[in-house]
Amino acid sequence: xxxxxxGEILKASTKLGLTSFGGPxxxxxxxxxxxxxxxxxxxDKAYADLVALCQFLPGPASSQVGISIGMLRGGIFGGFxxxxxxxxxxxxxLILFAMLVSNAGFDSGWIHGLKIVAVAxxxxxxxxxxxxxxxxxxxxxxxxxxxxxxxxxxxxxxxIGIIILAGIVGYALFRKEKAPEAVKLALTFGKKTGIAAWxxxxxxxxGLPLLRPAIDSxxxxxxxxxxxxxxxxxxxxxxxxxxxxxxxxxxxxxxxxFISGYGAAQAVPGPLFTLSGYLGQxxxxxxxxxxxxxxxxxxxxxxxxxxxxxxxxxxxKPGVQAALKGVNAAVVGILLAALYxxxxxxxxxxxxxxxxxxxxxxxxxxxxxAPWIVVLVTAVLGAxxxxx
Length: 388
Fold this sequence. Notes:
Helix content: over 70%
Keywords: Cell membrane, Membrane, Transmembrane, Transmembrane helix
Number of domains: 1
Shape: globular
Radius of gyration: 20 Å
Subcellular location: Cell membrane
Distance between the termini: 62 Å
Protein name: Chromate efflux transporter
Transmembrane segments: 80-104, 110-129, 141-174, 194-211, 218-241, 287-314, 326-348, 354-387
Membrane topology: Multi-pass membrane protein
Structural class: mainly alpha
C-alpha cells in the first residue's frame, strides 16, 4: 500500500515545493488545501493535531507537517519523499544564488537591497508571531526579557539558556491550564522506532560538539553547526536567522553575504530552512551545501519519528503545554533581538534605506503582495539607492 503511494506523495509535495510562497503560515494553508481538501489523505482534526505536534517540536513547522503527512501516507520513506519534493526546488535556487554572489563581479547594490528587504520580512514575521505567541502581558514580559538578554549577551549559548529558562517559567505559570485532547494517528512504525530516533537525535546533539575539536574537517564543522541549530530552534524559519548568524559570521562569511542570503530566501517557495543550502555553498562549495541541508533537516526527521508514536500521550499533559507557552514567548523575544542586530544594524545606513524598508513592509502587510514580488522590488530600489 505504502509503495503505491510513493509516486503521489512525491508529485503532491513537489507541486507544493514549486508554488508555496509566503512563509510557514501560508505553507500550512497550502498543505491543508492540497492534503485535506483536494486529496483527502486526512481530515481536519488529524491535520490540526499534526500542526500542533510540529509547533511543539523545534525545527521548521511547515516542513515537519509535510514530513508527518508523508509518513502517515507512506511510512518513513514516504516522509522522506514528502520532504524532498517540498524542499529541493528552493535548495537548488539558493545554491545557484550563492554561486552567483560568490562571483566578484556581482553587483553589491543588489545585495544591499536584499539586506533591506530582510528588515521588512523579519518585522512582518515578528508582528504575526507576537499576536499568536504573546497574547497576554505575562508572555509579553517573557519576550521582552529574552530580547534584552540576547542583545546584552549575544552568544548561541545564551539563546539556548533563554529557551530552557523560559520553558521553566512557562511551566510554573501555566501548568494549571487544561490541555486539549489528542487525535489518534495511524502509523506504520511504533514506540521502539520512536525511542531509537530520539536516541540518535540526542547522541548526535551531544556527541558532535564534543568530537569537533578532535576532527579537523570543514564538512564536519558544517554538519555540527547546522545539526545543532536545526535541533534547538523553536518558532519556525525566521528564528533560525540569529542562531545561524552567531555560528557563521564572521568566521565563514561576511555579514553582508549572510543577510543577503536571508533576503533571497524570501523570493523562493518552500521552507526558510533551505537557507542552509546557500550558506553551505558559500562555506565549502557543493559538498558543503549538501552537508548543510542534510544536517539542518535531519533533526526534524528524527524528532517527528521519535514523537509521533507518543503524541497522543504528550498532547494531553498540561505541564508540557505550559512549558511550550514560555518557550514560544522567548522565541518572539529572540526574533525581536535579531530584528535589531544583525538585520537592522547591517542593512539600514540612513534615511533612504529606512524609507525603502518601510515601503517593503507596507507591500507585505497592507498591500499583501507576494513575497517574491516584494523582494524583487526592494532589491531594485536598494541597488538604485546604492548607486546614487
